[in-house]
Amino acid sequence: MYIRNLLRVCLLIALSLACSAAGSARTSQGGPQGPWSSLSFLMGEWVGEGSGKPGQGSGAFSFTTDLQGKVLIRKNYAEYPPTKDRPAFRHEDLMIVYRDDSGSQLHAIYFDSENHTISYGIKAIDDNAVEFLSEVNPATPRYRLTYRKTSADTLSIKFEIAPPGKPDSFATYIEAVSRRKSGSVK
Question: 141 near 167, Cβ under 8 Å?
Answer without folding.
Answer: no
